[in-house]
């Protein structure tokens, strides 16, 4: 895999908070709630605006209880499960996310399809892991800040799950960051891990966000603000990886840091299709 | 019967029959899941009396106290289920069927092998947690009625043929014979093979889909309690529109990843409008604008041979009583007519051969007035049997003598639908 791009070098980081960004976000909201899309649906922008959609499959991996299902629910703007129930089989969740490219100033609609599978189903049913890995564009490796074993298992996970998968984005996510005070994973261990693996690492807290005035419904905009860094991070890695794969960027060697400003403005997405 | 505000509690206990170890307890109060637990000593005694009987070769099946009905049932000498209900209008019939559904749900999600050959109780307990959601939905106030009628809850879409064709085509493209479209737990359309699924899975599968939190797609292992209790199948679900799911039952193939958005678009974009029309159909069951007499506040139509039913309390929604109350009235009336008036449904365990002689004398209609007595008050319920169809109506206004006519007329109008 290409060396990861520097954060903020591919996607404009705080664009979703700008006036223009907010307008685009309206198409994934409805009355201040996150809109849920069926598989036959896509966000619709007002007629003059037509943007490309870039679709990606993302496999969320990690030991049982680290917070995979909670993270995906949080990203989708749904209620996060309070009690832990192991996920039965595979479940997928679609999240649309408009983001602005640094290089071309163009807005792209990212369509992330998250694949989440319970650990015991993975062990019990042989077809599940291959299905999850098939044609995946990215692996998210979760560990929990409150579970040291899940952190120590990361190298094993990386080898088992993404071993023979070059050219696929790999990201590490530390979950339950809200419980950082009780952490079993000190900062120096993270630093050492980063240096050894050179993988992008994000911290998340998959806890329910602000609610609307009724006290029950989740506030869609507030929820998006909570997770924008994760979605932008993913968009950045995936878009960059595609450009490298299409030969539009040099595959930076181990020692040369990625130059965030050297990207051509042509977009290599094969799968990009105009939105209707 | 079913007065507003009288809300009982239901406790469900599941124990390993040989050791008496509780595997789980679920409760509901006033129709919603509740945390409330029975004391361990009560659980022990309830199981104790049942075991005591068994040792003397006496089958204890039910008991009643002033306000509570208790039903016991063991399955495969391995699992004992006990249910206690203080809900108004509850009955042995309702509770026995509830236990059958609960055990069906347990087999559906963990397989019969794990339940009949318990090697590790702690592991089984953990696995059974996957069935809590489904089981809780039987205990609470559901909009569906298949748990009681053992018939599949259906809705009638406005353009059924178009959807049927798309479904058959898609199922074939996905190389499975079993496909259905489900809107909030009710079947909109299904392939012939899906309709031939046995009881209880025909009822359980759409119910399961309706009870799960929304997800774009799933690859969900299920055991079929009747058809394949020990070998798991794969239930694939694809949310075409929010609330409307395409379900396939398959073996090892196809992988979920093969049912991608392009394939879905090809088959389903052409029927997008008919699909959209299905989304609000759930509680309505009947196509918009279907002419029903304005006195009708709720209806349950059963086809006892096809094992399908239509159930709605949507008509004249602005009037009293509330939807929950209407559902309770119709459920209680169904239980009453099924337990004591109409012949048992074909294939149900209550059916007995010698009943055939009495068949010629069975009533073809019954009615009930519920609530305050006196002209113009209370709710009227009427049931009518004609061939394989049985219709139950809830009405407010109709004078008693007009009920039979109303039911006959309505059954006639509904006959082409089911
Ligand atoms: N406080 C906190 N709890 C979390 C977080 N993520 C997950 N959890 C809780 O951890 C438990 C396991 O989460 P879940 O997503 O079901 O784990 P999975 O097995 O990896 O899918 C649940 O009780 C969640 O509510 C988090 O970021 N913060
Ligand atoms: Mg999970």
List the helices and strands and how they pair.
The complex is a heterodimer of chains A (276) and B (418).
Chain A: H1 19-25, E1 29-30, E2 33-34, E3 52-61, H2 68-76, E4 90-100, E5 107-117, H3 119-124, H4 128-133, E6 138-144, H5 148-152, H6 154-162, E7 169-175, H7 187-197, E8 201-203, H8 220-245, E9 273-274
Parallel strand pairs in A: 3-5, 3-6, 6-7, 7-8
Antiparallel strand pairs in A: 1-2, 3-9, 4-5
Chain B: E1 9-16, E2 22-29, E3 32-34, H1 40-55, E4 62-64, E5 69-75, E6 79-85, H2 92-110, H3 112-116, H4 121-128, H5 132-139, H6 146-149, E7 152-153, H7 160-173, E8 178-183, E9 186-190, H8 192-195, H9 201-211, E10 217-224, E11 228-241, E12 244-250, H10 261-268, H11 272-278, E13 296-303, E14 308-312, H12 323-341, H13 356-359, E15 365-370, E16 379-386, E17 389-395, H14 400-414
Parallel strand pairs in B: 7-14
Antiparallel strand pairs in B: 1-2, 1-6, 2-3, 4-5, 5-6, 8-9, 8-12, 10-11, 11-12, 13-14, 13-17, 15-16, 16-17
Helix pairs in contact in B: 2-5
The complex binds guanosine-5'-diphosphate and magnesium ion (MG).
Guanosine-5'-diphosphate binds at residues 62, 64-70, 80-84, 86-87, 175-176, 178-179, 204-207 of chain A.
Subcellular location (chain B): Cytoplasm, Cytoskeleton
Organism (chain B): Zalophus californianus
Domain FUZ/MON1/HPS1 second Longin (chain B): 176-269
Q: Any overview of this molecule?
A:
The complex is a heterodimer of chains A (276) and B (418). Chain A has a single domain (15-274), classed as Rossmann fold, CATH 3.40.50.300. In chain A, 29% of the residues lie in helices and 20% in strands. Chain A contains eight helices and nine strands. Chain A has helices at residues 19-25, 68-76, 119-124, 128-133, 148-152, 154-162, 187-197, 220-245; strands at 29-30, 33-34, 52-61, 90-100, 107-117, 138-144, 169-175, 201-203, 273-274. In chain A, strands 3, 4, 5, 6, 7, 8 and 9 form a seven-stranded mixed β-sheet that branches. The radius of gyration of chain A is 18 Å and the shape is globular. With 418 residues, chain B is of the alpha+beta class. Chain B has three domains: 10-140, Beta-Lactamase (2-Layer Sandwich), CATH 3.30.450.60; 157-284, Dynein light chain 2a, cytoplasmic (Beta-Lactamase), CATH 3.30.450.30; 296-341 and 363-415, 2-Layer Sandwich (Beta-Lactamase), CATH 3.30.450. Chain B is 34% helix and 27% strand. Chain B has helices spanning 40-55, 92-110, 112-116, 121-128, 132-139, 146-149, 160-173, 192-195, 201-211, 261-268, 272-278, 323-341, 356-359, 400-414; strands at 9-16, 22-29, 32-34, 62-64, 69-75, 79-85, 152-153, 178-183, 186-190, 217-224, 228-241, 244-250, 296-303, 308-312, 365-370, 379-386, 389-395. In chain B, helix 2 packs antiparallel against helix 5. Chain A binds chain B through residues 36-41, 55, 57, 78-79, 85-86, 88-94, 113, 120-121, 124-125, 127-128, 130-131, 134-135, and chain B through 109, 126-127, 129-130, 132, 213-221, 232, 234, 238-242, 244, 252, 255-257, 261, 264-265, 268-269, 272, 275. Strand 4 (90-100) of chain A pairs antiparallel with strand 10 of chain B, so a sheet runs across the interface. Residues 68-69, 87, 116, 118 of chain A line the site of magnesium ion.
